[in-house]
Design goal:
The protein is α/β, with parallel strands linked by helices and 384 residues long. It is built from 10 helices and 16 strands. The longest helix is centred in the middle third of the chain and has 27 residues.
């Protein structure tokens, strides 16, 4: 198939004011209309000047783990019976038939990371998925993508109400360390037994098994942290265990943007389209992403769906632009930057031959409120 007469915004590289893009499952060719040569029998979609972008990306959501408009029966985000639950997998709780999937798709979002909630210091395994499908197994991009860790008010509040540990930031960090130390020891014993048949392997432990890929840097560690001291606790723990880490939310990280840059930290900012519903959000500002980018920090924008509905991802980026983020960075913050942070940019996040044909066609600039998404493709298949 080929899309013609489009304003192509490849994200990486200069826009093509009037261009074409030929694709099957992946992008095959793109360029100005002057270079377009039709192939007999191929399907052509005339964009009529619409903006063609890569499908939008949000790498921190709880899409499908909370039922839209449904209570406890469809709440599958937090397993609060145990503060340490690395063995839990988001893919086992996601409902792809929840109506918010279709709404998100219609807004141009084609790829998301879905995380367990932040009630537990270690919450479970995050999955990167496409937003179209009926069976989650067919939608997976990478699972697990990362392990969810949480610091600050959420674990404190959850377990204080239950009169259990952790009820302080110190205990939250200690529980995370203990779990990682125990998994390290388990991994050493397991490796020793594999290398020496005379040694008995450790008894199988699903929690330790789930943490081994994190310790081996095979998957990322995503740390939920809002307050600046929590952000630096996350970095401290990550450095102690040599984890491939990402800061999620990082609400106060702009207050030390220079230090974040010096650490090489990556930040998934947001959500910002909500009220200051808890004390650790008191310094929340729409200008945070701009301050981080000025310092050279790689950061993306998230909705934390359903905190902000995923269908409003472009509005979140537009407000960040209004608050100082450049237009280019605002679009990149919902395309290539989250793809890079999640280390999925070899497949998604920009328009380039060889990448998946995850495409979103907008009537105009996607950051303009009046623009509508008129067509969406995932791996070349039209979904909208």
């Amino acid at each position: 198939m080929v899309i013609t007469n489009a304003y192509i915004y490849p994200v990486e590289g200069s826009p093509i004011p009037s261009g074409f893009l030929r694709f099957s499952e992946t992008i095959e060719e793109m360029g100005p209309m002057a270079d377009f040569s039709p192939v007999a029998g191929e399907e052509i979609l005339d964009a009529e000047g619409a903006w063609l972008l890569p499908g939008l990306v949000d790498i921190h959501t709880h899409l499908g783990l909370f039922g839209d408009g449904v209570g406890f029966e469809a709440e599958d985000c937090n397993e609060v019976g145990d503060p340490i639950t690395p063995q839990i997998r988001a893919v086992d709780g996601i409902n792809p038939l929840d109506p918010t999937f279709r709404e998100s798709l219609r807004s141009g979002v084609t790829a998301v990371a879905v995380a367990p909630g932040s009630a537990n210091p270690i919450g479970g395994q995050i999955a990167a998925i496409h937003t179209s499908g009926r069976r989650i197994d067919d939608m997976v991009i990478r699972a697990p993508l990362a392990m969810k860790f949480a610091l600050g008010e959420n674990p404190k509040s959850c377990y204080h109400d239950r009169d259990e540990t952790p009820v302080t930031r110190m205990a939250t960090a200690a529980l995370i360390r203990q779990a990682l130390f125990e998994a390290q020891a388990y991994g050493r014993k397991k490796q020793a037994a594999e290398e020496n048949p005379e040694l008995d392997p450790p008894d199988f432990d699903m929690k330790h098994e789930a943490l081994l890929p994190v310790l081996r840097r095979q998957i990322q560690a995503h740390f939920h942290a809002h307050r600046l001291d929590d952000v630096f606790t996350a970095i401290r723990i990550a450095k102690e265990f040599s984890l491939n880490y990402v800061i999620v939310h990082g609400t106060e990280s702009y207050l030390a943007a220079d230090l974040m840059a010096a650490e090489g930290a990556r930040v998934v900012t947001g959500p910002n389209l909500l009220d200051r519903c808890k004390p650790e959000l008191k310094n929340m500002t729409f200008g945070g992403p701009a301050e981080l980018r000025k310092a050279g920090v790689l950061c993306s924008i998230c909705t934390d769906h359903p905190e902000t509905p995923l269908k409003y991802l472009t509005i979140c980026a537009a407000v960040a632009q209004k608050s100082g983020l450049s237009h280019e960075d605002a679009i990149r913050a919902i395309t290539i930057y989250p793809a890079r942070i999640a280390e999925l940019d070899d497949r998604i996040g920009s328009l380039k031959p060889g990448k998946w044909a995850d495409l979103a066609l907008f009537t105009g600039d996607p950051l303009e409120l009046s623009s509508e998404c008129k067509a969406v493709f995932i791996q070349g298949r039209r979904c909208v």
